[in-house]
Amino acid sequence: MLTKISSVDECTRQGSDNTAYIDDEPTRPDPTETPTVFCASSEDLVRSNTAECVGPLKRSWDRTKVLVTLCILGTEMCERLAFYSVSANMVLFGTSTLGLDTVDATSISLAFSALANLFSVVGGYISDSWLGRFRTILFSGILNVVAMLLIQCAAIDLNDWFEKDLTQVGKRVVYLVGLFLLTVGTGGIKANISPFGAEQLDSLGKEAVQSFFNWFYWVINIGALVAYAGVAYLQQNVSFTWGLFLPLVVTLLQIVLFVLPRNMYTRTRPAGSVLVVALKIYRQGCCRRPPHPDPKLPAGSERKLFARAKTSFGGSFNDATVEGLADVISVLPFCLLVIMYYAIYSQTTSSFFVQSERLDVRFGSVKVPAAMLNTIGNISIIILIPVIDRLFYPCMKKIGLPLTYLKRIGAGMILSVVAVVIAGVVEIYRKDVMNQPGGSHVQVLANENFTASSMSVFVQVPQFAIVGASEIFTSVTCLEFAYTQAPASLQGLLTGLFLAAWGIGNLVSMAILLVVERATILDPWYGDEINHVKMENLMFLLAGLMAANFVIFCGVALRFSYKETAPNLNSAENKDKIEHQIEETFHKPLEL
């Protein structure tokens, strides 16, 4: 049973046995009862009128925290390894096994990545509203197992068992259904695994949470590295049957790792339909005027509008709930402004990959998988994250120039511009070499012939490495930004929105490719055979669009105000202040 607490000390004592307290079913609190304080994190003590003591509130690492953190990181590594094993050679699988042309296979690859991220919004909403993060991640993992089985069926030759194989159309249908189920399961995991992991370390403070997100992204790239370097090689040089069997095994391992410490997790109880509450607050804010103005709020801001729904202004919703919604609304413009960044990032598995197929993939007597070039970005991330987390960020803070979330995101955008400009220059020189005597040859990749330049595929190393470096500043920071700027009841949804921006970026990239292909039909910039088009112009166009997006981003960022970070419960000077705020909370009616 959960009990009400009246002080920070009591809240701390309730978690001393390392047991996670949670109701099995989400329930709506009775507004006539005195609200309790959910002390899943120190930040929630200040920013929420309702909280639940759902786990240990310890101040230092112990075995429990180490175990749950390692299991969560291991779960994410396995999930990403399996996902990238499917996506790494998706274009090649489509053209060699399913009989698709390059444009259609590329479109499927982009749509797959887009849907996986778009479903993150659904996964975040379901978690925050009904299932909770643990069950959403678990059910999504089970769905991924089913998806991997279908994808495997599309890759294997059923004649070995049933003396009759699927037709090519049948294989396409089974494969696409498997991909769709995988996007749904991936969306449920992606929206919740990072905030669920950060939730386990919330009581250790802001620096521990920031470090978690950096290392979280580090293990993502370990999984991607194994997928692109190992599994992609197996798919290209042995068979897709074995190359798609491994991700099935890894997906099963992912579930085992996640449920292993199931009784040790700190869990936040779902809060009911957060979107319904948000719509009610918005409607009340629009339809009524506060009895007295708030001089602290600028006229016309979303906080001024939402203030009309606060109990302190005669509204029906407690102040913390309204402020939490205002915090999320203020972050939404940045969800839109990172879309173009992800459109650039998606080139690593589309136009960059097509470019790789037409470069010399030989390294001595070994054929390097075209998809392996993505490992350059992964390796740069694996090397740079410890350096940035342990040296660069602390040094910048020490000299009085700390990098805020938005500065980091902006730095990643600039790097993405540099990457596509380099890709355009590489494309120019690639075709110049092909026009020279002996400058081209025919190479076979997965039983498909490509006319390739004699220029080594390793000339792409700079563009992939710079995209990888940009991820550290933009992608990692977006996850941390979403977690720190949202109330606990909306963290999954806001994380899902940032991941949805990733998915929309893939759709934008696909739309740009289709529009460019049709608009430049007389002097093509992109097509099924890039040896006969001016793909460098496409790269320079993307760089220009990203540069324009960055200018808009800077304008919006200059007007943004960060949500105040909650005081640390370890600080004696803040303890009385926090207890006073908790005491005030008990005298406010709870409204949902």
Automatic annotation (TrEMBL):
It is a multi-pass membrane protein. Gene3D superfamilies: MFS general substrate transporter like domains (1.20.1250.20). GO terms for molecular function: transmembrane transporter activity. Pfam families: PTR2 (PF00854). It is found in: Membrane. It comes from Biomphalaria pfeifferi. Keywords: Membrane, Peptide transport, Protein transport, Transmembrane, Transmembrane helix, Transport. PROSITE patterns: PTR2_1, PTR2_2. The chain crosses the membrane at residues 106-126, 138-158, 173-191, 212-234, 240-260, 325-344, 368-388, 409-429, 493-516, 537-560. Residues 1-34 are annotated as: Disordered. Belongs to the major facilitator superfamily. Proton-dependent oligopeptide transporter (POT/PTR) (TC 2.A.17) family. GO terms for cellular component: membrane. GO terms for biological process: oligopeptide transport. This is Solute carrier family 15 member 4.
